[in-house]
């Protein structure tokens, strides 16, 4: 079996699925046939038809339009959480690994304290204390996600510390910031990229979970978890209201997980060795 061919096919397939999520989110205004927030009570719980491809919800809003615009909301949340948590983790984890000593102990004990709590409970506690809303939702998810980047960055720095090229750069008078940016970060970046790709799926799922509990994005903004929460009273009478947002969440999380795994395989030197053999 050609592992290289399978890896390349998996990467392209996952990237194609992710692209199929990103493009509708960017073109939501052109794709959605109706205003996702406009209620039309006379059309409530309408079955799928030509004008309403996925039917309507309990307020007569187009489910398809809400899912398309909800895709934009979910991708924004995922991207914001990944970028901000990665930035926070890279800075703190890099400082801990590079400088060591008391700073390393202090930062890693904070990381251990955050990891002592299950991630969903920590996010629930934070957003329950701060209140619902987009800003608080992002803040709670960032507090959950940054520890992984910090630990990965620290381990990467520790693996590189003491290498000859770093000692040479130090001997030539390079600053700590230059060494981190020019020599250490590029070596750790592939692993960070894999974690960031997987983190997109985690952030989308976390946001949907909190919104399903009523602690995330608030109505009438279309968001998949909130749509599933709205559908609970109608799960027997009109299950499509819950099925379609659930499918959207599943496909999105699975796509980013597959893309992250495909990238990991392609960047893993051991996979290349197996291919050659």
What does this structure look like?
With 277 residues, the protein is mostly helical. The protein has a single domain (3-28, 59-276), classed as MetI-like (MetI-like fold). The protein has helices at 3-26, 28-31, 63-99, 101-115, 119-130, 134-160, 164-171, 176-212, 224-231, 240-267, 269-276. The longest helix has 37 residues, at 63-99. The chain is elongated and about 75 Å long. 38% of the residues are buried. Mean pLDDT is 87; it is low at 272-277.
State the low-pLDDT regions, or none.
272-277
Molecular shape: elongated
What is the mean pLDDT?
87
Query: How many domains?
Result: 1
> What is the terminal-to-terminal distance?
11 Å
Taking the sheet with the most strands, its summary is: none
Short description:
With 277 residues, the protein is mainly alpha-helical. Helix content is 75%, strand content 0%.
Record keyword descriptors for this entry:
277 residues, mainly alpha, MetI-like fold, 11 helices, 0% strand, elongated, disordered C terminus
Give the arrangement of secondary structure elements:
Elements: H1 3-26, H2 28-31, H3 63-99, H4 101-115, H5 119-130, H6 134-160, H7 164-171, H8 176-212, H9 224-231, H10 240-267, H11 269-276
